[in-house]
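Worked example 4.2. Below are the chains of a multi-component assembly; read each line carefully before continuing.
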Amino acid sequence: MFKAIIYVTLKEGVLDPQGEAVKKSLHVLNYEGVDEVRIGKFIEVWLKSQDEETARRELEDMSDKLLANPVIEDYRVELMEVV
Amino acid sequence: MFKAIIYVTLKEGVLDPQGEAVKKSLHVLNYEGVDEVRIGKFIEVWLKSQDEETARRELEDMSDKLLANPVIEDYRVELMEVV
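Applying the procedure described above to all two chains together yields the following structure tokens:
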């Protein structure tokens, strides 16, 4: 069994309206030191796979097809074997 | 200047309907080895603060008030000094 964490972020240069909204709210709450906010997501996946290489290939495949939008998002796969 | 990453996850035991939906979609795409999916978010914050301790306290404060919902979510703050 493997556990993966896929971190998905907006590509640099892509506007992050949700992050902007959070930044403004933080300023309203008097956290004026806040300079920038960017929001990302991560997906934890537990999966059975014959070996680590296959698992990684499947996860990259899933990310390209479903978990991330390759046009505006980057992703990074962290993979570990679990019992 | 500090950069923080706040990782927000649903508490264990809290249902994750978005993760369930992703798991089902992955099964439809023939990734039958997928056992469980949980979705979290992370918030990158760049902020000015007099020292690391103050920055950490402010970030925990922000998380409790705005970034996470302490009733159903846990969070973890990762903090580093940047130039």
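Take a moment to check your reading of the output against the notes. The longest strand of chain A covers residues 34-47. Chain A has a mean pLDDT of 96.
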